[in-house]
Every structure is written in C-alpha cells, then in structure tokens.
Amino acid sequence: MKKVLLILAIALFGLVAASAQEKKHLEFEGVSIDGTVQEVVEKLIKKGYKLEKGSAILRGKVMGKKAKVTVASTPDGNMVYLVLVDFDVKKTWENVRTCYESMKMQLRARYGDPVLYKEEFDSPLAEADPIKALQYGNCTFICHYQAPGGEIILTMTKEAGVQSYFVDTSNSVSLY
C-alpha cells in the first residue's frame, strides 16, 4: 500500500511540475495570444470581429471603442506574439487625449498601475499646440502595464492616434 501511495504521489508531483512549466500566454479580449495568425484570427472572428484586409487585420470594438486590430507573428511566421490595436480617433487633441485617458483608466482597472509611464511635452511651447507637438515628436504619452503572460503598451502616435500593443512574453521576439 505504501508503494502505491508513493507511486501516486510521485506521479501527482510530476503532473504538477509539468503543468507549472507550461507557458502562460497573454490574452486579448479573452483570446490567448498563442498559435498561428490564422488560429488567432479565427478565434477573434468568433468573438465578433470582422476581417478587413488580408488574413491578419480585423475591425471591432476593443474596450468599448471602435478599432482596427492587427495580429502579428514572429519573423518566421510560426507564432503570434503581438496584437496591435489602432483606436478610431478623430484627429483633434481633445479626442486623442480623451481616448488615451479612457484606455489608460480601463487598463489600470484590469492590470493595476503602469510599471512605466511618461506623459509630458518637451517644452511649454510644444504644449501650446499639442497636435503639432505629437506630429513633430515633441511630446510623449506612453503607459506600460505588466499582465499575466505579457505586457500592454498604450501610446499616442505621431499621426494623432492612440495605439495599444498586447505583447505575449512567451512568444515575443527580442527588439534589442
């Protein structure tokens, strides 16, 4: 009887150790950022996203806002590592700032405070015309959140838009 219990204990320990070694993947809208582009796109379509162009660009609502969603794979094309979200924003400072702040609040509610952030203009002159400051790279608005299985980066773009990057740590490629 002791041998049977010992064998069961060892087998159970092996199963626990094996499951602990499984990689945790970041999720985007309830879909794991793992697998091929086609697999992730199919799961997003089942969630209500509409295929827009090619095989990796979709449209739908992300955190309540209309957006274009791009699913990206590693350079070898085998694994998805990134979901890029371009929020539909009218190109005024008020709209860009409102969208950015709204997304920041929702991300903070889900993932806690950002681990890194920078929100500033290079000078008071740049702050006087914030859209031009964005276009000319004279201001930085970026928040970086840690999440189970990855990281999320929220930023304002030079095109006066708002983007969010959902990067799966397990499948990600080094940018350095």
Short summary:
With 176 residues, the protein is α+β, with helices and mostly antiparallel strands.
Task: Give the tags.
single chain; 176 residues; alpha+beta; 8-stranded antiparallel beta sheet; 5 helices; globular; disordered N terminus
Tell me about this structure.
There is one protein chain. This protein has 176 residues and is of the alpha+beta class. The chain has one domain (24-168). 34% of the residues lie in helices and 34% in strands. The chain contains 5 helices and 10 strands, in the order H-E-E-H-E-E-E-E-H-E-H-H-E-E-E. It has helices at residues 2-21, 37-46, 93-111, 124-128, 130-135, and strands spanning 27-28, 31-32, 50-53, 57-62, 65-73, 80-87, 116-121, 139-147, 150-156, 162-168. The strands form 2 sheets. Strands 3-4-5-6-10-9-8-7 form an 8-stranded antiparallel beta sheet. A hairpin with a 2-residue loop joins strand 1 (27-28) and strand 2. The longest helix has 20 residues, at 2-21. The chain is globular and about 50 Å long. The protein starts with a helix and ends in an 8-residue tail after the last strand. Mean pLDDT is 84; it is low at 1-21.
